[in-house]
Amino acid sequence: MVVENRTGGGGNIGTIAASQAAPDGYTLQFAASSIAVNVTLAPVAGFDPMKDFEPIMLVASAQDILIVPPTSPFKTVKDLIVEAKANPKKPTYASLGNSSAGHLGMSVLSNLAGIQMQQVTYTQTAQITTDIMSGRVDTFLPTTGGHIGNVTTGRVRALAVSGKERASTLPDVPTFDEQGVKMEEDTSWYAMLAPKGTPKDRIDKINTDLARVLLLPEVKEREVALGFRMIGGPPDRLRDYLKSEIEKWAAIAKTPAFTGQ
Asked: What is the pLDDT of residue 11?
């Protein structure tokens, strides 16, 4: 396989290119969860994930982790919620902009907790990490993979992880659910799609081959190290999930927690 990164537009540039590719099974789209959000945020972007693609597989999700500076007064999720309710929009959270994983996750958390926080946008994750460590921004909700080392060495403090179970790499960090916030789903997920019209036999072959790859010992080892949860399943599972995610984010996108208003 040859990976061709098409950055820009919150993932829209690459998605449009993939949707316009020949439906022969040789050009695929490895999509992130933003594809289910951008169809609402940018409806004129030039693609419809339900109409312009054939689903192949819901590959994986990535566990989210809420981190704060090591000197933060917030020791638990409840501490953050209490402060945000007492001083709406005073606590800040970092993100890479609207529809990024950090923005989506904090929108879900804010809606579940009934709070509003102030988004601070960045262009690079490295700068966010620096500012979290130094206390220039209050919180960040990335996926666990890139921050396990920072948590274990004390450069940042982890308050919670998403999902129904704790992260195996960070067993001392409680889930949101354990702290009274029903954030049981990971907001970051990844899926394989093909251009509309790709023959079913090729869709089925790619699905079968990909399922075999996910079972490889070296892939499962990396799964744990990076905080992913491999999902898999037939194309119909992705079709149903994508539809439900589009509907979910269409509703969340109207809330003050998402818009910042």
From this structure: 78
**pTM score above 0.70:** yes
Using an 8 Å Cβ cutoff, are 29 and 194 in contact?
yes
Question: To which residue do tokens 């909700």 refer?
Answer: 141
Dihedrals phi, psi of 16, to nearest 5 degrees: -65, -45
228-230 vs 53-62, strand pairing mode: antiparallel
258 domain residue, yes or no: no
pLDDT of residue 255: 85
Q: What is the pLDDT of residues 103-148, one digit of tens each?
A: 889 999 999 999 999 999 999 999 999 999 999 999 999 998 889 9
Q: What residues make up the domain containing 102?
A: 65-185
Residue 72 lies in a domain: yes
d(CA 20, CA 10): 18
Q: Is residue 213 part of a domain?
A: yes
- For residues 113 and 197, state if they share a domain: no
Instruction: Scan for tokens 């491999």, then name that residue.
Output: 230
Q: What does the alpha-carbon distance between residue 253 and residue 37 come to, in Å, rounded to a whole number? A: 8
Of 169-173, 197-201, 214-218, 253-257, give the lowest mean pLDDT range: 253-257
Query: Cβ-count burial of 200 within 10 angstroms (0-12 exposed, 13-18 middle, 19+ buried)?
Result: exposed
Taking the C-alpha atoms of residue 63 and residue 47, their distance in angstroms, rounded to an integer, is 28
User: What Cα–Cα distance (Å) separates residue 197 from each residue in 164, 166, 252?
Assistant: 37, 40, 31
**What angle do helix axes 200-214 and 235-252 make, rounded to 10 degrees?**
90
Residue type present at position 187:
T
Quick one: 181 and 193 in the same domain? no
Q: What is the DSSP letter of 146?
A: G
Residue 123 pairs in a beta bridge with: none
